[in-house]
UniProtKB/TrEMBL annotation:
Gene3D superfamilies: Aldolase class I. Belongs to the ribulose-phosphate 3-epimerase family. SUPFAM superfamilies: Ribulose-phoshate binding barrel. This is Ribulose-phosphate 3-epimerase. It comes from Albibacterium bauzanense.
Amino acid sequence: MKHLISPSLLSADFANLKEDIDMVNRSNADWFHIDIMDGVFVPNISFGFPVLTAISRYAKKPLDVHLMIVEPDRYLQQFKDCGAHTITVHYEACTHLHRTIQAIKDVGCKAGVALNPHTPVAFLSEVIGDLDLVLIMSVNPGFGGQKFIENTYEKIRQLIAMASAKNESLLIEVDGGINLGNASDLLKAGADVLVAGNAIFAAKNPEAVIDELKNIAVS
Ligand code: DX5
Ligand code: ZN
């Protein structure tokens, strides 16, 4: 499968959001990455349902919703109603992760789990067969534009080893500090979905960066 590109709207221009949505619609990107932060699970607040509803009115590609919030179960139906295609919750935010994964599927979304940089991949061994996606955080969540953590490559390899035995269709998404300098190595290591915020939206020509990320050849 050709890898997927999921531009993070966190780095978009919120005063001209529709222009950035249209740019992603036109581009070679596959998904919209939507970062929801609650100021409790992470030390930052991003945006909520009214903005997400507005995004989904214009977005023509699946909404890849990354919930950096505590107690995500309380809001799954609302995220689905706002247009979420995939809902990814944090391992560290879910006491009853197995139940939460089932609840995401029950509302009709694809189910993902994100791992903070300090959380071992092995902690997913009992649920990996139930997941559509695992998101490996390659920065500490909360902010765009941070430095990529190199240990991510090792985690991708461990996840591939685990998934090859238990879930061959699992998508491996990587999020944080991704740019044209490390994207190729991430794909070689086995990433399926690359999230990029700053590298795309701070560029002079965001559409061209998306194109370059999408066209990286992986042999
Ligand atoms: C970080 C978010 C990321 C972030 C990525 O907490 O989950 O999706 O927006 O932005 P860059 O690519 O700038 O690191
Ligand atoms: Zn994210």
